[in-house]
Amino acid sequence: MDIIANYGTTLVLVAALFGFLMAWGIGANDVANAMGTSVGTKSLTIRQAIIIAMIFEFAGAYLAGGEVTATIRNGIIDSNAFADSPDLLVLGMIASLLAAGAWLILASYFGWPVSTTHSIIGAIVGFAVVSIGPEAVQWSKFGGIVGSWVVTPALSGVIAYFMFISVQKLIFNTDDPLNNAKRYVPFYMFLTSLVICLVTIKKGLTHVGLHLTNGEGVLLSVIISIAVAIAGWVYIRGQKYNPQDDSKMHFANVEKVFGILMVITACAMAFAHGSNDVANAIGPLSAVASIVASGGEIASQASIAWWILPLGGIGIVIGLATMGEKVMATVGTGITHLTPSRGFAAQLATAATVVIASGTGLPISTTQTLVGAVMGVGLARGIAALNLGVLRNIVVSWVITLPAGAILAIAIFYVLQAFFS
Fold it and tell me: Global pTM?
């Protein structure tokens, strides 16, 4: 308790710095995963992807990032175990932020697409075990989170598989693919817009003082999505399509139509990612700020300080802009050959899965969700379409991440404890 009384402001500032570093790592690694399909299909340039991420990642983090933050802050460890020693919880959360952030930046430097969720959860569990003991960890909830690492990639893979199968049946395997693309792609635009509008209106707008009933939210979402579909229909009809292009690459004009859709799904993916994964950075930071502000009292529920969500959003955007290119290349071109139509199916499936998880407050791995979706698209063309060597390396990096976060957090925790004592 003396540490909080004597160094309260310093602890919050250090936590803010490490929280920003963690957000930077999320941007460099996980956001690169999210935008990699768009860049890999050449629907977006890296610069365009960064601009989209700047707008929609920040919007997702700021408007819809609060729900899942509560799970990270209060769900993994038993806060009651730290009731008599809140200083240990504060130092542990700070150590977790630095450990996870450092690991993510290292992985991004080498182009490894790892899981930020693995990293921060491993770090939090690591410091909790050495500071209080195994009883400080709520292993039942931890088991549920671990289970989500299997369920969510499987769910996104199934959604992506059937989404791409529907594209094949309605468009590619028909006598007039281009006209059918013009006919059905606006429907896919409607579906994509509906996914993102529902979570924004239902959950996000409460942060800015607008409260809608479920019925009002659904109605407004449908209206906005219809407007997006109509605008897409007009834009697609106004584009010029050269039949000569199809002689150079089969279905080139159809893929051009899907390239337009990829921009919309990239926006949806960026928003969904911001709403879910910002919690990995600001959850521990929020815990530190609330404990210090209350003089050491650990509340079961605490409001998020106004400056924390923007800090996470800004850190994510800067991380992508400075270090995201290598991981984008791994995800966008390494697992399977992606075209705009395949990339759309993978991105929409990932966005839908992340939005569902964010709405239920369950922290998931966006990396594993996206990889599951890309695998689902690849499997729709047969197992030979997948680069199993790259997939093996990705899975190995996932396995390493959990213990790496724990070991780094334990070491940093002991250093911080010695320094502030």
Answer: 0.82
